[in-house]
């Protein structure tokens, strides 16, 4: 297994999902009976990455409880009441190391990385949000990042709807325009960062998209990895329903792992 750590930014409020996120944090909203957070972790695991740092915030206790009880939630088991013991009948457990770290209730996306700097200061690390899926080969993404020698790589995608765009000079990002109504390539949320990126973040209020990435682009330190395949983000209930329909069809494009 590849030793590169994967940071999952999972602390936001997810207000555009309405009632779903009144009850649970957005990464715990389910697609096909499984939290979207686990779909994302499986994307990385399928490419050989199995050490995750989950940056917690809103309703962090639900994510902690889920992973504490993961073995029982994902398997059949038998309880021997008199002996107060539990036997796992069907054992299906991923070989993951999961660090669950509180990064604050109202901390912004860049600030969450800043709070994790002690865990990230030594090596290249990958980062993504807790709501986006795609048929992205993250091993190939990492290889591309290592080939260009810059501090940061952002995966660019072409979504079903318009979000934000970037201006490119070759493969170098020269201007980052988040959520402008112009179409084209957008930030797909699958990043690779060198520890030096943390020097571009100083406060809890720093937003990765509008503060950190533009600073990196201005310094010529942000490169683009173009992904022409499937990508989608569970931003609204319509998005959730769309992803549910793909999963129910048995042909979800982001599913690159085998189920025993």
From TrEMBL:
One GO BP annotation is:
O antigen biosynthetic process
The record ties this protein, via InterPro entries, to:
G1P_cyt_trans, G1P_cyt_trans-like, NTP_transferase_dom, Nucleotide-diphossugar_trans
Nucleotidyl transferase domain location, by residue?
Answer: 5-231
Which keywords, in A-to-Z order, does the entry hold?
Nucleotidyltransferase, Transferase
The molecular function terms of the Gene Ontology recorded here are: glucose-1-phosphate cytidylyltransferase activity
| Lineage: superkingdom | Bacteria
Q: Name one Pfam family in it.
A: NTP_transferase
Keyword Glycoprotein carried by entry: no
Under what name is this protein listed? Glucose-1-phosphate cytidylyltransferase
Can you name the source organism?
Answer: Paenibacillus algorifonticola
């Amino acid at each position: 297994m590849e030793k590169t750590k994967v940071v999952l930014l999972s602390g936001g409020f997810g207000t555009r999902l309405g009632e779903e996120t009144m009850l649970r944090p957005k990464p715990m909203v389910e697609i096909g009976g499984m939290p979207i957070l686990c779909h994302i972790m499986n994307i990385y695991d399928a490419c050989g990455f199995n050490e995750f740092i989950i940056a917690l915030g809103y309703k962090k206790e639900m994510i902690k409880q889920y992973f504490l009880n993961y073995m029982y939630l994902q398997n059949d088991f038998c309880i021997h009441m008199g002996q107060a013991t539990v036997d796992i009948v069907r054992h299906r457990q991923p070989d993951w190391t999961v660090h669950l770290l509180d990064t604050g209730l109202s901390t912004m996306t860049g600030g969450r990385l800043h709070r994790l700097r002690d865990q990230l200061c030594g090596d290249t690390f990958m980062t993504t949000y807790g709501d986006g899926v795609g048929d992205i080969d993250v091993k190939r993404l990492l290889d591309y990042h290592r080939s260009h020698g810059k501090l940061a790589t952002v995966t660019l995608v072409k979504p079903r709807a318009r979000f934000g765009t970037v201006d490119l000079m070759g493969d170098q990002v020269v201007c980052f325009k988040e959520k402008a109504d112009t179409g084209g390539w957008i930030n797909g949320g699958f990043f690779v960062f060198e520890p030096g990126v943390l020097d571009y973040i100083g406060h809890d209020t720093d937003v990765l998209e509008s503060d950190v990435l533009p600073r990196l682009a201005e310094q010529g330190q942000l490169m683009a990895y173009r992904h022409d395949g499937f990508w989608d983000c569970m931003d609204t209930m319509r998005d959730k329903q769309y992803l549910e329909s793909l999963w129910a069809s048995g042909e979800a494009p982001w599913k690159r792992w085998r189920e025993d």
